[in-house]
Amino acid sequence: HHRSENGGSSEPAGAIKAIDKHSVHQICSGQVVLTLATAVKELVENSIDAGATNVDVRLKECGAELVEVSDNGKGVEEANFEGLTLKHHTSKLRDFSDLIHVETFGFRGEALSSLCALSDLNVVTCHESSQVGTKLVFDQKGHLVQQSPHPRQQGTTVSLQQLFYTLPVRHKEFQRNIKKEYNKMIHVLQSYCIISTGVRITCSNQNGQGKRSTVLSTSGSQSMRDNIGAVFGPKQLQSLLPFKQVSPTENIIEEYGLKDADLPKQLFTITGFVSQGDHGVGRSATDRQFFFINNRPCDPLKVTKLVNEVYHMYNRHQYPFVALNIAVASECVDVNVTPDKRQIFLQEEKLLLAILKTSLINMYEAGVNKINATPASDLCQVVSSNKSMPEPGEAMEPIIQSSKSSLNLASLKAAFSSHHSSNSGSKSNSGPTQKTLQSFFKGSVKTPTSNPSVKSPLKPVKDLAKCSPVGKSVLDGFRYGRTSCGDTDLEKDRAVSSFVSTTEAPDRQCSVPELSSPEPAIVRPSVKDETFEEASDNSETVPGDPELQTEPCTSKEDGSESPDAKRARKENPHFPTEHKSKAFLNCSEGSSSSIVDAPVCLQRRTMPLQFSLQELEGRIRRIQDQQKQKASEELCYRRFRAKINPGENQSAEEELKKEISKDMFKEMEIIGQFNLGFIITKLNSDIFMIDQHATDEKYNFEMLQQHTVLQGQKLIVPQKLHLTAVSENVLLENIEIFRKNGFEFLVDEEAQVMERVKLVSLPTSKNWTFGPADIEELIFMLSDSPGVMCRPSRVRQMFASRACRKSVMIGTALSVSEMKKLVVHMGEIEHPWNCPHGRPTMRHLANLDIISQD
C-alpha cells in the first residue's frame, strides 16, 4: 500500500534505520545536561580538574542569558582544541580499567559536547606553555568553527549563551522556572565550595543593567571548616560538631544483619561536621546537607535518611546541618551510574550505615550527658524499679516524684534514649527500661501488668527496637496529648481515628471537651488493622472495630425510621395503579354532568374509559419500568464507596473532592444533628455526616490565613541576620510576603553580601513570638514557590489553635439555621475536607436509593 503511493521505490514505513547523528547528539545531550545546576557543575569540575586555585562563575539573568566559568588552571593545549568538545573525548581515561581508579571529577567526555548542542559555546584558553591565549568558537555539533588569538592569563574561560535554546520546550520551562533553577545551582555550587580546599570559588550574578552582585565566595582555605564559614557565615560554625568516627557496637551490627567476623577493617574513613543536637541550633529544612564520597558531591539516599533519623532522636523538630566526606578505596565505589554522577553504588553499604549510626549516637549522647545532672543509669533505675506498669497516662508521675530534686530536660531525654547509650550496660536493644517505656507508648496493655518485661503483643522485639521511643520526642507526647509510636509503617497511616469517635487530636483543644471518665484518653492499637483508635467518652455508642463504625448512625435511620426518612419515601412519584384509575373515574363523572343527548352521552362514557384504562396501565407500567431501570443504573454506579474508617481517609477525601463541587453545599438539605456533634445532611439521595467542630474550625482557619496581617513589634536595635546570598535575594524578592507576616527589614543595597538585610520588626501575637528561625523557614518555602503567599509553620499552628477555640464545640446543640450556616461555609473555602489538625470534616453515610430497594 505504501509502496504504490511512493512510486514503488521507498522502503516500507516500518523499516529499522539508524537515527541520524545530529538527532542522536541532541537526544543524548538533553539527557546529560538537565538543569542549570548540571551545566555549572560540569564547568566547575573541569576547572578544578585542571588544577585551578581560582574559579569564577559569572551569570547574567540568573543564567538564562549567560553562564561563564573562568579559572587559572593549566589551560588547553593547541593539539586538544579539536577534541575538546567532541562526544566522549577525554584526557582522563585510556581504557576501561582506569574507570575503577578515576580520581578526577569529570571523565566521561560528554559535558562540553552536550553543552555545545544546547547553547552557543565559546572558550578562551591559554595553556601554561603558550605565550598568548586563543578564542575558540564551536558549533552545535561540537566542531571548531573559529579560532583567533585572544589575550588572557594562563587558564580557561568557557561561556554558554542562551542555555537550552535548541530544545524549545525545555528552554521555555527553563526560563519560567529560572529562580528555582538558580537556587538549585547555588546549592550544588555550595557543595563544591565546601569540599574544594585550596580553591577560591566565587559566583556572581547580574540582572539587566543592574550591578553585579556576589552570591558566594570562599577564600581558598585548606580546611573544610573555614569553607563552611565562608559560605554560611560564622554563626553556622558555632553550632557544629566535628564528626568522630567509632567502630559499630554489637547491637547495631546485629540490627544491620552484619557478621562480625567478615567485616573489613578500616574500609571507610568519615570526616566532616554535623549540627549539635540541642533544640534551636538545627535547621527548619534539609537545605544544608552535603554528602561527599571521596571528595565527590553526591546524594546517597540511605545515608541522608539515617543521619536525619538519628538527629531526630535528639531534636525532633529540626534537621541538622551536615557536611560529611566518606573516604573509601576507589575499587569499592561505582560513580558511573548516572550522567551527573550524583548517584553512587557502594560496596559494604550496610557497614557504612552501622558506623555512621554508632558514631552519631555516640557524639550526641556525649552532648546529652554533659548537661546531665542525674546520670542516665540512675533514672533507668527509677523507671524499672517501678515494677507494676501504671496506666499510660500516669506513667510519668511516679518517675517524676521519685527524682524531683534532680530532674531536668536532659535527664529525661537521657532516660528515654538510655537504651542507645553505650554506658547503659544492656547491650541488646530491649533492656528493661526499653520494654517498660515501650508498653507505655503502645498502650497496648490495657490493665497494669505486674511484670514490666511483658512485650507488646503487637510486634516482635526487633520491631520494638526500631520503634525507639525517642523517635517522636516523648516530651512532645506530653505537650500535645498525643502518644504515638515513631515506627515508620505506623507513621504512614497514623490514622486519624475513626470519624464517629473523637478523632485524634494533635492539639489539645481539639479533643472532646468533656470526657466523662476521669482516665485520660489512651491510644490503643486495634490488633485487627494496626491503626490507632482513640477511646472516647462515648465508647458505648462507638464500637472499637472500625468496620462497624457506621452502625450507630445507620441503624438509627432504619430501625426507628425518622419522620424525615418516611416523608422522603412517601414523596416517591408513582402511586400504585388503582389509586390513579379511581381518580380518573371521579374526574370524568364530574365533567359530564351537563344535560346532552342521552345515547351520545353513554357512548362517550363507555368508549374512552375502557381505552384510557389500558393506556393508563401501560403508561404506569412504563414509568415503573423506567424507574426500575434508573434504580438499577444508580446501583451500577455508586458515587461513594469509601468506608468510614481511618485507613480509608485518603480515598474518602478523594471521592468527596471528585463528586462534590463547592456549589453543592448550598443545596444540601439539613436533616438534623446527631449526638450533639454531627450534622446530618441530604443531597438528592445521598446522606452525609458533617463534623460540626472540624468544619467550623477549617473555615475559621482559612479566614485567618487569608486575612490576618500580623502586627510587628519594633526591635530596639536592628538585628543582623547573616543570611547567605541566595537567601538574601529570595527575601528581597518576596519582601511583601514577609511584611504580611509581620517581618520588617532594613535593606542596604550597598553593603556586602550577608550584611545587606537587617531585621527591624518581628511579628508578635498575644503570647506567640516569632524569630529568625521563622524567617529561614519562609525563605525555604519561597525559594520553592516564589511569590506565593505562605505562612511559617508556627504561624499556621497559632492560627490553627485560634480557629479551634473560636469554633463550635462538640456537645453544642445547634439550630437548623446555625447548621445551614456551617454547611454553606464549607462551600466558600479552598480545602473543606479536613480541619487544620487533620480531622476529617465530612463523610458519606448512606444512599437512600440502595436502602429503599429492599
TrEMBL record:
Gene3D superfamilies: 3.30.230.10, Histidine kinase-like ATPase, C-terminal domain, MutL, C-terminal domain, dimerisation subdomain, MutL, C-terminal domain, regulatory subdomain. It comes from the Eukaryota. InterPro entries: DNA_mismatch_repair_CS, DNA_mismatch_S5_2-like, HATPase_C_sf, MutL/Mlh/PMS, MutL/Mlh/Pms-like, MutL_C, MutL_C_dimsub, MutL_C_regsub. Keywords: ATP-binding, DNA damage, Endonuclease, Hydrolase, Nuclease, Nucleotide-binding, Nucleus. Residues 228-365 form the DNA mismatch repair protein S5 domain. One of its GO terms (molecular function) is ATP binding. It comes from Lates calcarifer (Barramundi). Residues 554-581 have a biased composition (Basic and acidic residues). It catalyses: ATP + H2O = ADP + phosphate + H(+). Its main location: nucleus. One of its GO terms (biological process) is mismatch repair. The keyword Nucleotide-binding applies. This is Mismatch repair endonuclease PMS2.
